[in-house]
């Protein structure tokens, strides 16, 4: 199992490339690593906002200049369906925007 700190320790002290996020998915313990917002800088696309998911947790990470990478939101995935955990993380990540519909209340 990969901890949140271990994931964040792999990030540079700067926005991360979208290619680096894609490479994280090659790790056996990482289910999803996607940029939420990215911008082109030269030949690279950089992201300051991403969702990283393992079997046990989904985290929304944000890069802030001077502070580095921090966990903005955490969704516990223990004994839960991975798709539901991912959806909840995406809803939390979108904030006030409406990129993803909120899950139905049960």
UniProtKB/TrEMBL annotation:
It comes from the Archaea. Pfam families: DUF7964. Residues 7-90 form the DUF7964 domain. InterPro entries: DUF7964. This is DUF7964 domain-containing protein. It comes from Halohasta litchfieldiae.
